[in-house]
Fold each of these.
Amino acid sequence: MSTPNLLSRTGGIWFTIFMLGATLALPGQGIRDFRWLGDPVDGETFLGLGASRTSLANPAAPNPELHDVSAFTLYFDLKKLNLQRGKASFYYSNALLGDLVLLLQETFQNPNSILRSVNSSLSSGLFGWFNLGWNLTRPGPVQPFLGFNLNDYFLGSTYLDSLNGRVSLEPQGYHFAGGPLVGLRAALGKVGLLELRSTYALSYVRAVSLSYAERDDNYPKSHFFHAQIDFFTAIGVFVAVEHHRLVNRGDLPNATRRWDATLGYRLTF
């Protein structure tokens, strides 16, 4: 996919996110009206714990059905909400910790899967995904915010080749990336708070390459797209749907993507 087409599609997704939040917001209700167990959320830090249904796919891979994986994983995040105009909210999550559960499931079902198997992976790295967004308006029925992300990613795919057996090609490795964030909050009365966030991250360094991969340091650095919808209820329960996608800027077959559907509970401290 060319860069102009990619930017056009990404812009379209961001526009859709804004329109969805604005449509769902309840007239006459303000974000400040939302309460967590009766308490205001402005300035509070929340720990989210839950279970996710995670799906991984790589439709560009040879034999793509071998790359489809779905399993239950663990989820956790941190968020600090600041609702005043010009203030920043902080978001953090680490998919790698929860993905260890997926690895254990696969190993239990097939002990040989701990070895180099035919699959595709896209997860956070050791440090995780950091988002920071500054509010552009006062907390009315909707509140847009802009900011940046600093993320790390583990990325890799192993294919079954008829001539060479198992091969691992670019793009792969442990990447550090960063880029813009755009988001929107929408008040759903006192019932809940809807948050929509999207990020685009450009890899600026590959810290580690997979030891068994066919490494090419001249291969274009990867980009990463992310979108998330999070519904936070007044009783602390939250539901989230999250999408991560590799933006492969080279010509080798890798279009790894993941979906996470999460049900959990948020505590404050």
Amino acid sequence: MIEVNIPISDRMLGIVLMIVAAVLVVVALLIGYAAVERWSGVNATRSALRAQAQGNGSRARSEASRAAALLPDEPAALLPSIDLESPSAAAKLLNLRNRVSDRQRAIVDVALQLNHALTMQPIEDVAGANGQLIASVAASSKGQLASLPVAEHGDAPYRTVLECAYAKLLQVAWSARDAGRVRTAAGALQLLSPKHPQASELMFVITALDPDIGDKELNDSAQPLPPERRAILAKLLAELAPAHAAALADIAMGATPGKADPKAALAATIDRAIKGAPTASALDALCFQALDQDQPELARKVVTKMEGAQRDRALGFINDFPGTLGDAFLAAAGEQALLPRPSRLRAGDGFVAFHLSNEHGLLPKLFPEITLNDQPVGAAQLRHWGSLIVVLTDLPRPYTITVRVNDHVLFSQGIAR
């Protein structure tokens, strides 16, 4: 064997070692930078989830965007930053699906099908409870009142899918005036997200739809809401919760249930309104409520916040006082806001129920005349709480209900089988 000795000077050896050391330092820096970046992405993901759990939506979105920028190939980091209700989300999810491992692809597939369900696109089958919930979301997005499945043991759905399914159920059940499902969905959302951005509204809905709750508990549940939002929600809930209609009417006026002084409550409401920036429709409502309570001076206080044609129109009604709004309901040609109108009829076994008021929540001065198949309904068949009117009947379906005020037909509708 021939040995070849290549002499290497100390200087050359030092240079080689320096180059190797420099390469190792660069590699170490790259590994360290990648580790720091990954740690920052994981930390941002956790911060986004923590902010979401705390009900801090703006911070959750900010942290989710930062996590997505740091870890663009990680579903756990990228998915919270995607708005699944946006049609453009599908392209982002498909792009992510092509970059992740097979093990992570199932998570992206669930998010993609949930996006399709929310945007009313055709959905594909997804295994287990997630797939069943996504199918119910798809039905709810089309306005269908679907029942949510019960997950089998060991097949828990993703929290986002479950929360989305209950949110859609609440939306459709509210439109259908299905009080039972509204309460179920609101309770589930409150349990899933105690710090939900609308947690106060959810708690008010849950409490109002409990037939056994007392007026004090109902009033306490309404107090965390801002006054204007509290009044709107109380009026809407009165139709879903007839057992609490009177208490909800007091709450809507800002009064304690059972202890309301309507005139004092309205005066306080008007004082708050004229110190703020109320909308034109809110001013109309307050003006007509004041006249309905025979308080023209309060109505004039409201007029000071009005302008132009709205002001002239309101002054015309005030100057015609003491004519009642019951007369104005029928005499105001073109004043559609003053005309009484019914809510959607709800017919059940042995009853028909509806609300009757005008656009501003005012009631006719005279109780309406109600007939079933042209036969007058007697007082014993009527139940009346504020704007809510319930007619008890044992007539077989189909039959026709007609409602008149001062011989003016408000509506006539057939009740089908």
Amino acid sequence: FFFSHIFNRASFRTAVVLIILFSASIYLIIENRLHSYYVHYDARAYLVKSQTLTEKLEVFDAAAVNFFVQNPKYVLFGAGPGLVSIPSSAYLLKRDQAAWPQGLTALPHMGAILQFSNGGLIGLAIWLYFLFVIMRGSLKKQTFGEIQPYSLITVLCLLLYLLQIRYLFLIGLGMGLSSFMNKNEK
């Protein structure tokens, strides 16, 4: 499948165009533009140098994790839907306190931490169950010789949400639910 797809004329043209675009973009990044990239990466050097898990997370995620570590009574049910930014403002890391002197105004960005902070272990378990059901239903449609990209995109989008990409979760959820609707209509 792979080799027959590579040697297809349309695929070959696409690969050539992508190589040309990549080469042109590398050429356009000249030395004076690289300085801004160095500044960007130097500002995030704490990700490599940090010692604890919370120090490696973003400000919103780190504050939420610190809140739950310091207050284990909220682990079972969470802080409530969309409310974790209120109590977690008091648990900012020292590196983030200067940037957020009035407290946090946003929710955690990482999907697993957001679901945990909204509903605790119970809400996270329910969410993971539905995620597993949608992914299992999407992957059941796959056959060995025939790849169905619709199901694979669904699974990919749902898994990316666990990392940090919230809108891809909504796309994956919509695609997964619509595949179940189409299955029920047949």
